[in-house]
Specification:
With about 375 residues, the protein is α/β, with parallel strands linked by helices. Helix content is about 50%, strand content about 10%. The chain has 16 helices and ten strands.
Length: about 375
């Protein structure tokens, strides 16, 4: 959670150069991203509300992880701050009857720079804390952090404009945290915007959802995914690999990048090839794979392995449900196992998930987990 310094003013940013990472047309973290692809209708709808002076006081951005919800939240926030500051400088768009047609803000604008640096005095970002000892994010957002929102929103903004709060992973708020949010929504301050980014809005209280402008984010289209993937890489990604990553990511650029970073597409191809030919694999071959792929301490590789297994099960179960024997993904054939029907595949998937979860809880050797998982699938 970040509570930004209220003593920072526009003049502190005069003459700032645009950092290369922000000025570039590459994929950047949401706070610094000037690139936004997809979700055009969502942007059009929110612009209509802004231009009609009907901006809601609270918005829920809901959808699967990694599809641009947080990027849109920061994009909307910097747009609002930019419009406010431009109006206060005497060059307001409203004075000339011109209406903005995009949420774009130039990377050298003070509003962009302040948000990118984490230093905008009128913006508060809250998310799950990071546990340094365990090396992972905590399961939920502490209610103490949520309770800081109300006094923040009721302060006078630095330039007489808006104050904005983004709550990321808002679906991880516990009941006390959600009740604290509800109190804010019952008496929303003027020129205050609360943005809740959720990966499962079903976890929010119905009374919260009913008081917010709900925006459902669909997965990114197959046309948008390759564009974003190539912008995330310093070198072009081969066409076949793009197709495999796009198919596995299911419209989530965040998931696609994780596939690349957590072990690479080469490792993905190896595991998928083993699964395709698992009936012909010997125990020694499976053991060799587990030793090479699941090196001790390589948590990213293990995370990727579990993701591949889960995706493979979903794919072959879908094949079985549709009475198909094979599906080609980026030049790689995913084949329905001949020794399983739909019921046995569903049961095997359940057993494998339970086994891997048991290994995680017991902190068992992950190389053994990989070997045993493949042997269970082999039957």
């Amino acid at each position: 959670m970040s509570l930004f310094d209220d003593d920072i003013h526009d003049e502190d940013y005069d003459g700032f150069a645009v950092p290369a990472s922000i000025a570039s047309d590459s994929l950047q973290p949401p706070r610094q991203s000037s690139l936004f692809i997809g979700h055009h209708q969502t942007e059009t709808d929110i612009l209509k509300e802004w231009n009609a002076n009907r901006m809601p006081h609270a918005i829920v951005l809901n959808g699967i992880k990694g599809i641009g919800k947080a990027t849109f939240a920061y994009r909307l926030a910097r747009f609002i701050f930019k419009e406010t500051s431009d109006n206060n400088d005497g060059g307001g768009l409203f004075e000339s009857d011109a209406k903005p047609e995009t949420l774009d803000v130039k990377p050298d604008h003070p509003a962009f720079l302040k948000i990118a640096s984490g230093g905008h005095p009128d913006m508060l970002v809250i998310s799950r804390p990071y546990d340094e000892k365990k090396g992972q994010y905590k399961n939920d957002i502490p209610v103490e952090d949520i309770r800081k929102i109300a006094p923040f929103l009721r302060k006078t903004s630095s330039d007489g404009g808006w104050r904005i709060v983004i709550v990321d992973d808002a679906n991880t708020m516990n009941r006390n945290g959600q009740n604290a949010i509800l109190k804010i929504l019952e008496e929303p301050p003027k020129n205050a915007l609360l943005i809740l980014v959720t990966h499962g809005a079903g976890g929010l209280l119905p009374t919260i959802r009913s008081r917010c402008r709900f925006i459902a984010f669909p997965p990114l289209s197959p046309d948008d995914m390759p564009i974003l993937l190539n912008k995330s890489s310093d070198t072009p990604i081969p066409s076949g690999d793009l197709k495999i990553i796009t198919a596995m990511a299911d419209g989530s650029i965040g998931t696609a990048i994780s596939i690349i970073e957590d072990g690479g597409i080469e490792a993905t191809n190896i595991v998928l090839s083993v699964l395709t030919n698992i009936d012909d694999m010997s125990g020694d071959q499976l053991n060799a794979l587990s030793l090479s792929y699941g090196k001790s301490g390589d948590t990213k590789a293990i995370t990727q392995f579990k993701f591949i297994i889960h995706w493979w099960f979903e794919t072959v179960i879908d094949l079985s449900m549709n009475k198909l024997k094979m599906k080609n993904v980026g030049g790689l054939d995913i084949i329905l196992p001949t020794n399983h029907n739909l019921q046995s595949l569903l049961k095997l998937h359940e057993d494998v998930d339970a086994f891997m979860a048991q290994c995680d809880r017991g902190n068992l050797d992950k190389r053994y987990m990989i070997y045993k998982t493949l042997r269970m699938i082999q039957g």
